[in-house]
Amino acid sequence: METEVLLTLLVVAAAAVLFIAGAVRVDVAAVLVTLALAWLGLVTPAQALSGFSSSAVIAMLSVMVLGRGLDRTGVTIRIARAIVGFAGTGERRLTAAVSLVAGGLSAFMQSVGATAVFLPSLLRVSSLTGVSASRFLLPVGYAATLGGTISMVGAGTLIILNDLLRQRGYAPFELFAVTPVGLPLLLAGIAFFYLFGDRVLPRHERPRLTPQEELIQTWCLPCQIFYLRIPAGSPLVGMTREAAHMISRYNLHLISLAERDEVVYTPWRYTRFAAGQELGILGEAENIARFMDDFGLEWIRAGESTANVMADPNVGFAEVIVRPYAPIVGKTLRDLEFRVTYGVEVLVIHTGESERREDLADLPLQAGDAMVVLGRWRRLRALATNRNFVMVTPIEGRAGVRERDAPVAVLCFVAAVGLTYTGLSIATSLLSGVLAMILLRVIPVGEVYRAIDWRTLTMIAGLLPLGIAMETTGTARFIADQVAALVAGYPTPLILIAVALLATAFSLVISNIAATVILVPLALVMAGSFGLDPRGLALLVGICTSNSFLLPTHPVNALLMGPGGYQTRDYIVPGSIMTVVFILITVGIVSLLYF
What we know:
The structure is a single chain. It contains 25 helices and 10 strands. The protein is of the alpha+beta class. The protein has a 5-stranded antiparallel sheet with strand order 3-2-4-1-5, covered by helices on one side. Helix 1 runs antiparallel to helix 2, helix 10 (179-200) packs antiparallel against helix 25 (568-594) and helix 23 runs antiparallel to helix 25 (568-594). The two termini are 34 Å apart.
C-alpha cells in the first residue's frame, strides 16, 4: 500500500470519528479534514480550498435563498395550509403525504430542488400543527433522495450512468427502466417512517424560547386560536361582537375575520357578522364550545381556514406600558376607540395589584398599566413609537410577508428549476433564480445573506477535498480493486451485495457523481470477469450511489441539518436501517431483472 493511500484512509477514519463522536461542530470537523489533507500533501492548496467555490456549495446556497424568497412572499404558508388541510395535523399522515409528493417530484428534478420546494413550507407546517420539525424533515429528505431513483433523470448519478454506458459502447437505459427499483424503494421508505418513525426519529426542542413564546408563557395567554364558520341560519348573522357579548359573556377575543379570501385582523367592534364568514377567535376551549353551541357555528381546522393567525409572520403579541403623565391616563379603551385607533386587540390589562382579562372596554387606564395586545407587526411598530406607550416586547425586524410578490417569487423559482433542463448546471440555474429575485425586489440583498446557513455550507465545502484526495491518490481505485479481488469466486448474490456496499460507502465519503464515475467502469470490467450482465451491474452501482442516508454528507441531508436541528448521530439509526433496506430491495429487484 502506498503512503498516500494509507494517509488518505487515516484521514477518512479520523473524519468518521469526528462526525460520529460529535466532539466538535460538523463545520469545524470538515475544516479540520481539509487542513489535514493540505498539511499531509494529499491535495494542493488550491484543491483544499476548491470546495468553497464548488457547484454543490453554490447550488445549496441558492436553494436557501430561493426558499427564503418563497417564504417572504407567503407562498410557503399557502402550501403549508394546503398540506395540513389535506393530511390533517397527525404526524404520521403529514409525513407520509409530503414524503409521497416530494418523492414523486424528485423523480423528474434533482432531489435538492425537490427538498427545497417543501422545506420552507414544512417549517410552516410545524408552526401550524405544533409537530417538531425534526420529526418529519428527515423522512421527507430521505423520500426526495429515494424518488430520484424512479426515473433516469431524477438523480445526477443515473444521468452520468447513461453517459458512461454510451462512451463504452453499451445501450443506455430508457427513461423508466429504473422505475421497478425506484418505486418500491420510495414506498418502502415512506412505510418505514410511517410505522417506525416514532422510534427512530429524534425529538429536538428549541433550547431557548422566542420572545413571543416567552410572552405567551409569562402571561399564560390562550395561544391557541379557534376558527369558526358562520352558517346561513346562525343567530349570529347581523349581530356585532358586542351584541353577541363575546368578551363579557364568553371571554373570547375576535382576532380575525375572513370573507371571500380577504382577512381583516382585529376588526372594528361594530362590524356586523354575515353568513359564510370565518372567525378567528382567541380563548379557552370550553368557552369556544359554549359560543359554538349558542350560535350554531361550524368548526374549521386551522389548515383549512383562510386565516391562520398563529402561523402568520405578520401578526404577533406585544407587551406595552402606559407612560406616566400620558394624555390617555384616565380614559377607557372605549373612549379611545382602541381597536380603530391602534388596530390591535387588548387581551390583558395589569393595573395596580390586579390583572383583568374581562370587561376591559370600560376600565380607566392608569400610568404604569401593562397591557398585552395582539395585532399586525406594522401596527405594533406604530404603537411602539406612540408617545402614550412604552413597548416592552422586541419588535420583529423583518418587513413581513409581501403577498403581492408571490407570483414573481414562484416564477423565479420555477424558471430556475426549468433552466436545469436546458443544459445549464444546477448551480448556474439556481443562482440565476436568486439574481432574478434580487433584481425584481422579491428579497433585499441584506436578507440574502441572512438566509444562508453558513455552517452547512462550510461542512460541504470542507468535505469536498476529501473526495478529490480519494481520486487523485488512487485510494478509491485501491479500495475497489481490493473488493473485486475479495469477492471473486463467490455466488452472484454476494457479489451484488459487495458492489452495493462499495457504492454506498463511496457515496458517504466522496460525491455521488464521483463515486459513479469511478465505480461504473470498474463494474463493467468486473461483470466480464464474473460472467454477469454488465448493464445490470452498472445499474446497481448507479442506484446505490444514491444510498446516502447514514451521514449528513449528502446535499439533501446537509440542507435539512440546520432547520431540523439535527446532529450527526441523529442520522445514524434511521440512516443505518434505510441503508440496509435500500441495499436489500435494490439487489433483490436488480437480480430478478438482470441476473
